[in-house]
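Section 5: illustrative case.
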């Protein structure tokens, strides 16, 4: 529908309408979903994305073309490996507050844990899924800049899980 919007506006209208109809069950089911992230690895994300593209390409391109595209994608490094010798620093989006993740040689330092509230925390929603996705089962060092909730609120969650 998106590509049709650029090339064939009249056809795009019909395709967007059909897409809306197909998304009704999904929209309905979202109400019953658990309000947490279900992290999957970068490898599985890549496989799902490539599989989705192949599924579309096989209907619009000759078989030898989309198979060639798949071979090229696989040969260019299906799962790029991160060099453990380099530093990786991520400032995580935790809303108001702070959480910085520093990684090197398989070790993790977490600076601040973001905010917590009565029945949850940013650590549960953001930090924990990131650490799990990257394969960490422990945090080597946790530094809290100060005891305010927006910087240290997720401490208990991090200590519980890691």
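Designed sequence:
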């Amino acid at each position: 529908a998106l590509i049709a919007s650029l090339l064939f506006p009249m056809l795009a209208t019909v395709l967007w309408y059909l897409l809306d109809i197909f998304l009704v069950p999904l929209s309905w089911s979202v109400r019953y979903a658990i309000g947490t992230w279900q992290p999957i690895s970068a490898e599985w994300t890549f496989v799902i994305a490539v599989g989705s593209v192949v599924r579309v390409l096989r209907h619009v391109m000759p078989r030898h073309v989309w198979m060639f595209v798949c071979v090229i994608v696989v040969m260019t490094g299906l799962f790029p490996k991160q060099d453990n010798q380099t530093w990786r620093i991520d400032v995580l989006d935790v809303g108001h507050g702070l959480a910085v993740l520093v990684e090197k040689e398989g070790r993790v330092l977490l600076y601040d844990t973001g905010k917590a509230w009565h029945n949850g925390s940013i650590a549960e929603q953001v930090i924990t899924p990131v650490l799990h996705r990257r394969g960490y089962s422990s945090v080597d060092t946790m530094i809290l800049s100060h005891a305010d909730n927006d910087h240290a609120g997720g401490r208990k969650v991090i200590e519980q899980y890691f």
